[in-house]
Design a protein that fits this description.
It is built from 13 helices and 22 strands. By secondary structure, it is α+β, with helices and mostly antiparallel strands. The chain folds into 3 domains: about 90 residues, 3-Layer(aba) Sandwich (Rossmann fold); about 70 residues, Dna Ligase, domain 1, CATH 3.30.1490; about 220 residues, ATP-grasp fold, B domain (D-amino Acid Aminotransferase, Chain A, domain 1, 2-Layer Sandwich), CATH 3.30.470.20. Strands 10, 11, 12, 13, 14, 15, 17, 20 and 22 form a 9-stranded antiparallel beta sheet that branches. Helix 6 packs antiparallel against helix 7. It starts with 6 loop residues before the first strand and ends in a 5-residue tail after the last helix.
Length: about 425
């Protein structure tokens, strides 16, 4: 389909400029808005996200452009209400709708999983930081997950009380009076291997082609393209059982899962991503060549099949402590530019920057190929080509992911 006369508006929070950049290859006009810059005392950092990118027009207020947009894309969560309203106005909207509660509200996810007949590992819902302290003192090894406010607390493992106590002390100071009412989900570890579906979900339906893969947590990812019917049974089972809830909640979006499979071969859903996950969206945005068609159709409740550009993808997370709080100047050679995806990406005075978003993960280098070895080699080559202050990546991350492939075979997950 020819989109050269179509306008797309991307409403983001800074992580997914690469989605707008990819759509700019197909659409005549791409508008990009980074949510969060407007405040009583606004900062320029988020305002500049998306600025200077070829084919992308950064805008300061998305509502001024809604009427002009033929397609509105929400690659991140937290915008369910806006999407519901825009759809009520007959706008073509790509986004997870209110299905984002499955990712953002950990306790609600457990309720939905139970109703869907998915297996649940041992867990408890705990209200208040003092109750959490009491729990963690006697339960080393458990995982702690917060809800909604990812900036307050991300998932962490309670190695033991000596290690965890300072983290909770810091959290108490940041939560202030909310520490007594904050809800946590505490999960026992499940032995096995973690694997995930990565693709799209349109009103509870899934394209006939997708990818699945393994992540080295916050370090790297490897993925493989397969026909949907050839996905590991554990991943298809999770998707099948979640599909009614996804449809009812208005999901027309990117969709990824993290599923734990152990000796009992049962699929334990650990986390769903009702957005362009990071990883693997930096990789699959290049692994498939026709996202413009898929998103355009999906926003109207129709399925356009994904077209693979290669069979395998690999991704290496790029990190910089300097980039957590400062604009990070990046030297990205032109031949590898397509394969380097930057969070908070902007171009100021002709130079690439990662605008500070409060995290050290400033983007990713990816590789695609018709063998896993080719994809991994390309990802490493592209990562090595990028220069920036305190920029680093884990050279062993993809080895760990490939080791997970062999472990997965022990649990019936063929690669």
């Amino acid at each position: 389909m020819d989109f050269s006369n179509q306008t797309v508006l991307v409403v983001d929070q800074g992580l997914y400029v690469h989605i707008a950049e990819k759509l700019a290859e197909s659409f005549g006009r791409v508008l990009y808005y980074c949510n969060g810059w407007r405040a009583a005392f606004p900062l320029s950092a988020r305002y500049n996200v998306g600025a200077g990118i070829e084919g992308v027009q950064r805008v300061s207020n998305p509502w001024e452009y809604v009427d002009a947009a033929d397609l509105i894309v929400f690659p991140d969560t937290y915008f369910g209400g806006e999407q519901e309203y825009l759809r009520s106005q007959n706008k073509r909207v790509w986004g997870s709708g209110h299905a984002d509660i499955l990712e953002l509200h950990r306790d609600e996810l457990k309720t939905v999983m139970r109703g869907a007949g998915l297996p649940l590992g041992p867990y408890r819902v705990i209200t208040g930081l003092e109750a959490l302290r009491d729990c963690l003192k006697d339960n080393p090894g458990v995982y702690v997950k917060g809800s909604v406010f990812r900036g307050d607390v991300e998932t962490f493992r309670n190695q033991n009380w000596v290690v965890t106590q300072p983290l909770l002390d810091d959290l108490a100071s940041r939560l202030g009076p909310r520490q007594a009412s904050t809800v946590f989900v505490v999960e026992d570890p499940i032995d096995g291997v973690e694997v995930g579906y990565d693709g799209a979900c349109i009103d509870g339906q899934f394209p006939a082609v997708a990818c699945f893969g393994y992540e080295a947590k916050d370090a790297g990812y490897i993925g493989k393209v397969v026909d949907y019917d050839d996905l590991p049974q554990a991943l298809r089972e999770v998707n099948r059982r979640l599909a009614p809830a996804m449809a009812a909640l208005g999901c027309r979006s990117f969709f990824s899962t993290e599923v734990r499979v152990g000796a009992d071969r049962r699929p334990y859903l650990m986390d769903p991503a009702l957005r362009a996950g990071s990883p693997p969206s930096e990789a699959y945005i290049e692994l498939f060549s026709n996202w413009a068609e898929v998103i355009w159709a999906g926003a109207a409740g129709e399925i356009a099949e994904l077209q693979p550009a290669a069979r395998y993808a690999a991704e290496i997370i790029l990190r910089s402590e300097w980039g957590r709080k400062h604009f990070l100047a990046l030297d990205i050679p032109e031949p590898v530019r397509r394969f380097v995806k930057i969070h908070g990406h902007c171009r100021l005075d002709g130079r690439d920057y990662a605008a500070p978003l409060g995290i050290r993960e400033i983007g990713a280098a990816i590789g695609i190929g018709d063998s896993l070895e080719d994809a991994v080699g390309a990802a490493i080559e592209h990562a090595e080509a990028v220069a920036g202050l305190e920029l680093e990546f884990d050279r062993n991350a993809l080895n760990a992911a490939m080791e997970a492939v062999e472990q997965g075979r022990q649990y019936g997950i063929e690669w």
